[in-house]
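[audit] Reproducing an earlier prediction to check determinism. Same input, same settings, fresh worker. If the tokens differ from the archived copy the diff job will pick it up downstream; this log only records the rerun itself.
[audit] input (285 residues):
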Amino acid sequence: MPKTSSIAANAAAGRIDRRQSRRKKGLLRLRHPIPDRIFTSAGLVVPVVLVLLWFAVTALGLVKPLFLPSPLAILEEAWRQITTGILLEDAAVSSYRIIVGWLSAAILAIPVGILMGNFRLFEGALEPLISTVRYMPIVALIPLTILWAGIGDEQKILILFLGTFFQMTLMVMDNVKTIDVNLIRAGQTLGFSNTEILWRIILPAALPAIWDTCRITIGWTWTYLVVAELVAAQNGLGRRIMDAQRYLATDTIIFGTLFIGLLGLLTDYAFKRTGRSLFRWTADR
């Protein structure tokens, strides 16, 4: 009897070990879901480790504060801008420019991309031009945008538009091209017109991918903010960073950069949450 009991105990222990082993391997399995708490914790570990390393490097004096201020100095700069109202004013102005510039690009790029993705004539006529312009450096276009739009908000918005429109157009074109051609053939068999196929088949099928394209491209728009506010801007997050560069105010530069990244992260999160609500059937992707 004791021998039988020992065998059963060993078998039970073996099953537990195998389950634990499978659970550990499951974290690194391809396309395998993991618990939400582990997913969230993994996203927090890396930033925390980097901040701790940053704090250690500055506390030990391995790098001069001129080149890398401590995290406490960044927090002090953040508090200064919050209490004086500078941060709110700059964030409001920059957010306005981002929203208008990106929306202007999206309103034009989405229909153009859909036409290019469905009609070879539009693709052949527009893709060479768009593919060429999208490689041009936006900074080189600043003098032209000043001539065209002056030095007000219109010029900043135009820079953001140019930095976003061409990439977004080509991405929307690719989104539309991924739709199964058999769906289009089925619509034609049912007697649908081109307009009906676009509205009732292609657009609903492509919308989740187009939404992801919008999410990605608005992130690019945020990265062009400093370039857009480089010339003749009186306020804005990018302008604050450029002014700080003149006076070697490294804490202001780092805080401004981190804050732009935070705003971009919040924008990305809002797009993700909205996309999951609008397109629930893609939640498992």
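[audit] rerun output stored. Observation attached for the diff report: The mean pLDDT is 85.
[audit] end
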